[in-house]
Amino acid sequence: MEGCFTARNKYPEETVRKILDTAEQLFIEKGYDRASLQDILDRTGLSKGAIYHHFASKEDIFYAVCDRIGRRNGEVLSQVRDAPALNGLEKLRTMFKASLQPERQAKMFCMMPYLMDNPKFLAAEMHSIFTEVVPCFVEPVIRQGMADGSIHTDRPRELAEAMMMLSDVWINPIVQPSTPEQIRARCEIYDRLFRSFGIEGLIDQEIVDTLVRYTEMAHPPSLDGEAHD
What we know:
The chain is mainly alpha-helical. Helices cover 70% and strands 0% of the residues.
């Protein structure tokens, strides 16, 4: 038994990568709710035991997929944060555009369940805002803007938190079903709210159009009901 166990787990990193690559593609194709653990088993050719050796559930796999996508996004945001030629406001604008690039975000809108219907996923998103996105990326850029005069505030952490909570939760079409009209109205209010801080043009027409497209592509109607674990 010991020899079989060792052979089966000789390359655990490759197994995990195979599971996550397959699961990510299935979640994009079917959405989280309709993609089942059996789909992952069938496509990878792995046994249920091999899956459960690394992940406790489909939800656990999903978190790992999201973490991996988050790390990719973090690498892009780090490059923007550290760009020497941009002032604070320019970096904020670039970050917003980078975070909505279709090749990175369209897949998230296709695979994610509505966060309002999944409190654990919504809580994970909010936790990420407060512990990663704000302190690592947005607040440092706002502080730079304070120093170079492009952003006007004496509360950089709170401003960063308000910006990200509104953009990632209130405006985000993935949180709850939204119409294009609702998204446009929220973007307009968002732009007005932050002008007094010298922050203009974060949500430009290109971003509004992108968000509207996401409302139309996210969560297509179920064909035969939902799949379960």
